[in-house]
Amino acid sequence: MTRINAPDLAFWLFLIAVGAFSYWLASDLAVGSTTHMGPGYVPRGLAIIIMLFGAVMSVRALFAGGAPFPTVVIRPLIFVGASVAIFALLLPIAGLALTSVAVVLCAGAASHDVKFRENILLALGLSAFAVALFILALGLPLSIWPPR
């Protein structure tokens, strides 16, 4: 008898739950028809596709063979989560250039394999790219440096 692949099954059941929640959120929106789509047409359609995909794959996980749950490494979760918080908190007060550097340095600290010197170079390069793309090319109303 084959064992259940518990990690895969848990993920696919989670995906079904996300699809059901999305469908519920879109339930107040009018669907319309294929020729006159309403605002709920695409969200409901995607929610149904996600639920069907989750259902098919969870049946597959029932017969895929046993696999243990992987161990959770907490360091990347903390540093990547902190980098998102740093971006949200620093952008209005520090500007895009300094915020980008801080975010890349924080996210780079999530791994022991990242060398500090390489991380600094990457942070400076990505910061310059972010300024060039979002402020110069796209014209978003963001400050490059901290406001005076």
From TrEMBL:
Source species: Variibacter gotjawalensis
Protein keywords: Membrane, Transmembrane, Transmembrane helix
Protein name, per record: Tripartite tricarboxylate transporter TctB family protein
Keyword check for Membrane: yes
Lineage top rank: taxon: Bacteria
Sequence ranges assigned to domain DUF1468 in this UniProt record: 12-142
Transmembrane portions of the chain: 9-26, 46-65, 77-110, 122-145
